[in-house]
Amino acid sequence: MGNHEMDSLDSLFSLRGRRGLVTGASSGLGVECAKALAMAGADVALVARRKDRVTQIAAELAKTHGIKAIGIGADVTRERDLDRVMAETSAALGDVDILVNNAGVSPTGRAENFKREAWDEAIAVNLTAPMMLAQRVARRLIETGQPGRIINMVSIYASVASSVYRLSAYAATKAALANLTRQLAVEWAGYGILVNAIAPGWIPTEATEGGIAKGANKERMEAFTPMKRLGLPHEIRGAVIFLASAASSYVTGSVISVDGGYQAW
Fold first, then answer.
1. Coil, strand, or helix at residue 202?
2. Dihedral over Cα of 255, 42, 188, 86: its sign
3. How large is the average pLDDT for residues 27-52?
4. What is the spatial distance between Cα 32 and Cα 30, in angstroms, rounded to a whole number?
5. Total-model pTM
6. Residues 57, 107, 238, 141, CA torsion sign
7. Rounded distance, CA 84 to CA 89, Å?
8. pLDDT category, 122, cuts 50, 70, 90?
9. Domain range 13-258, CATH architecture
10. What angle do CA 101, 259, 214 make, to 5 degrees?
């Protein structure tokens, strides 16, 4: 892309004519990721187990932003479901060229007693599913000679441990996903497929509200964060648009922290 093609704000950040796929899109940061893509003009497929919820959110996004959006009910740990997601998205919107791997689970428990089933589920959802989806999207892009973007949602716990919660499986899978991001970036750079990650800090959402948005835990998280507050869900949007758009044309293999400075000290 030449300089003259990036001379306007619109050419830098517009996603018009692009097709996004967001997993874990029924609540929290997944909804914000889908909103960000829609705001910038991309058509979007929202994927989660709660089909009614993603269908409803998709309808709202289509109406508000004048884009095409669909909701697909699927379990990202099932290969058959992933094949169906790709087929349904392709039929409704066209081939995916922006993938946001946001679906995740964060089981807690003492490491010495951590249940094998919970460990296996964390690996299946947080690590294997992003790889399987990234493969499917990348294969199609390589086949058709199209560039694309893959954005993996990791966490501050991809690079540090938690002193507040016992998160052995979560920390392990997010660290693995961060390094998988780098490896895929290296392997697919030659095809114009840029692969990056976003590492959110403490941002209360439906999934986490019970524990972190109140009481002593909230105070502790705020004390550990240089900006002295928890994040707001919409504060993830800018990073998503940046990594999906022409603005990040020379960025790949990066992890962008959106954490109020949490990892800076």
1. coil
2. positive
3. 97
4. 5
5. 0.95
6. negative
7. 8
8. very high
9. 3-Layer(aba) Sandwich (3.40)
10. 100
Distance in angstroms (rounded) separating the CA atoms of residues 128 and 175: 13
Q: What confidence tier does 164 reach under pLDDT thresholds 50, 70, 90?
A: confident
- For the question of residue 170 being annotated catalytic, the response is yes
Burial tier of 172 (Cβ tally within 10 Å: 0-12, 13-18, 19+): middle
φ/ψ of 75, rounded to 5, equals -105, 115
Residue 137 and residue 214: Cα distance in Å, rounded?
Answer: 39
Other Cβ atoms less than 10 A from the Cβ of 214: the count is: 11
Where do runs of H (alpha helix) occur along the chain? Answer: 9-13, 28-39, 51-65, 79-93, 116-123, 129-144, 168-188, 209-212, 215-224, 237-244
Q: Which of 157, 165, 170, 250 is catalytic?
A: 170
Quick check: 262 and 156 in contact, CB under 8 A?
A: yes
Amino acid found at 134: A
- 207's tokens: 């999934």
